[in-house]
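Obj.: predict assembly geometry.
Materials: sequence records (below).
Method: joint structure prediction, all chains together.
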Amino acid sequence: MSRIITDCSLKLQSTQQLAEYITKLAISVNGQVAAASAGGEVLVDSQLLLEDCEQSIDALEFSSDGNFLAAAGQSGKIYIWQIKATIAPELIETIDLKNNWLEHLQWNGNLLAFSWQGYTQVREFPSKKIITTLEHKDSNILAMAWRPPLFKELSLLADKIIKIYDSDNWDDEPITLYIEAVPVGLAWSNDGRYLAVNRLDKSVSLFEWGNTDPWLLHGFLGKVRQITFSASREPILAMATINQIVTWKRSKKAGEGWLATMLEAKEQDNIEALAFAPNSEILASVSESGILALWFKGRLIGQVQADAGLSCLVWLYNSKAIVTGGQDGSLNIWKVIQSGKGFA
Amino acid sequence: MTIKEKQPIPVTVLTGYLVAGKTTLLNRILTHEHGKKVAVIVNEFGEIGIDNQLVIGSQEEIFEMNNGCLCCTVRGDLIKIVGNLLKRKRQFDHLVIETTGLADPAPVIQSFFFDEDLKENVQVDAVVTVVDAKHVEQHWSTNEVQEQIAFADVILLNKTDLVDPKELDQLENKIQNLNVLSKIYRTQNANIEIDAILDVGSFDLEKILQLDPHFLHDHHHHDHRHDESVSSVAIEVEGEVNEVKFDQWLGELLQKQGNDIFRLKGILNIARDEMRYVFQGVHMIFEGLPQRPWQEGEVRKNQLVFIGRNLNAEQLNKGFLQCLE
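Observations (raw structure tokens):
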């Protein structure tokens, strides 16, 4: 059963202001919203946890149970807070990796993975125990992700290579996948079946679990900046390049591969972020000129113009609201009002 | 909604052998009262004696583009870090990138042409190379020294107080002949007017007025022989260029010898075109544009300068002459 979606309206529900460009947003299972800025701020709900730092924070994530929040960035410091329902978040650890601009950290339960230069480390919290330190001297890590749905494997993206480690056996040889061009980032589908890697050469490598030979999606106007999968049973892959959004769905016919749908976006307006709603195939995009747009089945179903350029977004878990971060430091919560009628 | 500010931020690429005086120059740039907010990306922290939030460390990481061309390499670390810095546009209005003494400057420059975000927001201003006048001879035979000189728009011949004047003249000649387009300044303690190194506009096609190759004595030294070391070849000839023939010739040349051609600049008089055509290249990257109409009384001559390794002046001359109508 799915609702027929005709149009959506977006209504500004609340707004807050940070000092600088919002680099990252995070959302916890408990519905808490965190934001980080290029001015070194970290905000949870309405509370500033960090503000005395001039250097950018670029990585921000809640642990999957919502009990911890980690942030890191230009200063090379990783901050870990314990989040409790009744009292203010408590800073329980600061890891100083001196002068390494940190961009990648990922929780899996209470395990935190992070990379700097030639290393990736996994630590457990609140015990602070080091679980493993992986060495990869040949290349820096460009992106990392635990593989859903069980989050048992840790995938690390480096120059033209992906290494996937088994967290039960860290010392085992990782699964290795090769990419023929310089990669930018990676995304797993929620069922862990597909792994997409966007590349600097205007294309995307798309792997199916168990197969080292990827599909190659190409022909885009520019560098593919964002990739993301929908949570639906047949995952949709959405990607953004310059002002273009393209969605891909695997054809039901054998041998046909993936079929593309091109979404029309405004001319000369870079898409800065993409995200599917947690419980539907509605895709939200934000752009450099400040447009928050909603797309469904290849069609624009709602949009709103923010006061400033937008940089990132997250959906709330119930899919009823979207949080956007602005290039001017504004943090907006938009209510999504669906005006669909009937059921199909 | 505001109109996007599209004024690109200039980038100075600072190269030089280990103790030539790069750090002294960096400290000068950072402390000088020039009214610019300068962000610096360095390879090694700790060398800079100034506590500055805009000094960022970065570990050199070279990515091959795998597009069938060996010289198409970029600095992955720079693409990331500059991308991050650009989010805080208000924070700085000039960027300096320091490379190690052993670095090839090409991947740094190429990063700003290959990555579309960088290309849109940042423009290489100049390659500045600091040369240790006292010790450079010892390292002359290494590829790095010659490449860093070959790529340079501005050269600081530093530590001149430690060298006798006659040797200094010889050294300057040698450097100038290797890279005939570079502007050489003699310095002590890297002491130089900031205007000479920042906002030079060497990669700005609009600013190419005329190519003035500084061949010092021994002008024809490199002609008529195949030179295995790094050198410059300048071509200057009147006449009208057939655009199709030129494209084909240069395309093939860059395809075959792009790896050895470090820098390339030129002004062309295209047949049946009122506009002066200007171009530049770094390895296989090439860009050109019709710059402005030829002025009345202006001599419509073609000028090309190649700087690279294994350049064959005779062949280059012959090849270009065949492009004339």
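Conclusions so far: Chain B touches chain A at residues 1, 4, 45, 53, 56-59, 61, 63-67, 74, 76-77, 79-81, 84, 87-88, 114-117 (CB under 8 Å).
To do: check interface contacts against the pulldown list.
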